User: What shape does this take?
Amino acid sequence: MCGIVGYIGDRTAWPIIIKGLQRLEYRGYDSAGIAVIDEGKLRLNKCRGRVSDLQNQVKGQSISGSLGIGHTRWATHGEPNDINAHPHVSMNGKIVVVHNGIIENYRTIRKSLQDAGYTFKGETDTEVLADFIEYIYMTQHVSAEQAIKVALNKVIGAYGLGIICTDEPDKLFGARKGSPLAVGVGQGEYFMASDATPIVEYTDKLVYLEDEQVVVLTRQGMEISDLKDVHVDPVITKIEFSADSIDKGGYEHFMLKEIHEQPNSLADTMRGRIVEQTQSINLGGISEVMPKLVSANRIIIVACGTSYHAGLVGEYLFEQFARINVEVEYASEFRYRDPIISEEDVVLVISQSGETADTLAALRMAKEKGATVIGICNVVGSSIARETHAGIYTHAGPEIGVASTKAFTSQVVALTMMALAIGRKRGKIEDARYSELISGLLQLPELVERVLKGDEHIKEVSRAYQLAQNAIYLGRGYLFPVALEGALKLKEISYIHAEGYPAAEMKHGPIALIDNCMPVFVLATRDKYYDKVVNNIQEVKARKGQVVAIVTEGDTEIARLADYVIEIPECDEALLPMLAVVPLQLISYHIAVMRRCDVDQPRNLAKSVTVE
Ligand code: F6R
Assistant: This one.
């Protein structure tokens, strides 16, 4: 979603901010803008469209100035156009704001400002906030920092903010509530951004602001305080990834790179956690809450989108290996339903970004109700990672493509390790079975590598369906969530309508959709459902549907029935999701490229959904 970049130091701010905004493009946006203080004067450029459009706007002009803020906007209030793009400048030109989040009471504030003579250029809550800060600054005769705090004490909603006051041109202000903001600490210079990606090439020292904190950056130092004006000592953390890891590394798209990274990302999730010699699983991040997990009556898994699908795989894993009752919930539903949660429950939140607004709100609610809350997150230091009682980092590395791929497989590996560790402690899994699964997990990177080697064939299969308008995905057991994930991948990047179903549900409705134009992607590996799924394939063929089957290597039976087969290596059925999802990721990727879709930044989507 929206992204913020800020800079104060001795270098020219404009190119640093432009590059930072490009780094944030993956979050999804529809307009961009930059404000710099250039020779004491405010210089503002913003437009609907891409960061490259913004660059074109100033082609041939030299923009100096070593303090500035920039923004990529994903429209919530007001359509995406030049006026609604950020930064927003207050009516008298004193306050300049970039904002992530939503100011919920902006209409009330807007009305009171109108009564005081303010007029508005656009429709955004952010413009109202800029005017509100200015109004306080001018009428209460306080410093810009004080005006920001007075305003934020009255604001209801979520914000990550970068602010400039033109009367105080050597200060850069930031503030956060519910929407992340980090400060990169350099030598006599500071960087501000909504995540670490624009900062990593300049410094690895990062300070995450907490909710209701305001930071004042000057070339001489950093001062953090809360909205009650109490000083806060900054906690400096180290960025754990390198600048190289956020480049495309020779691939045409981030998504393709990330799909191909899965052998490594899976190994990274397991590294240091599975010790082959002793057949042990060490999950340091949750060791303190292990007794709670072992005695839990129930685990409630809460997540959104792809992370929710990983959670569904987790349900099968925890029930099978740990014999614990599991419920999987969409965070957006769970948080508003007043669910029954007790201190005996464990709530497990899963999030790649660690910033998804609904998941974060669900986490907070579960904590308030006394549950132990555990996280599985990819982004180190993210809000969800910091607010949970304990957790596991997936260590999949930065995921830049909007469509989640390697994060999913790493989440499933993390869930598998958890289920096995808990099952072992609860005495619910036999030693031989446990050892089998440990070996299976350790072989996964190599097996995924083998699936990736079949990419040319997968591309050819994809070509046959590039013009499809609808698609159905079928799977059973562990592969049902994979069917949901395959359908989500296709619709989000290729804009083809797709639905995932448990294969046996087909007869209860979706079969009516089948005709000779309908591709049906069937997860049909040799597991306990094999014969039943073969029947489903026959039912589709009897109605002239097109079948693409993901099968176990060497399967000749389905090859005779299906239009195309894609083989994956044989593996334990509990580990199959990590293998079977890979061809589906590749199919979506190739179809989207063939349809000339913007694979890494699909329309209307945001990588990190920081508003509900
Ligand atoms: C799909 C996708 C989204 C995210 C969802 C949750 O490819 O990326 O559905 O999975 O927005 O995001 P996180 O995992 O960051 O909480």
Observations:
- The longest helix spans residues 431-453.
- Residues 245-451 form a domain with the Rossmann fold fold (CATH 3.40.50.10490).
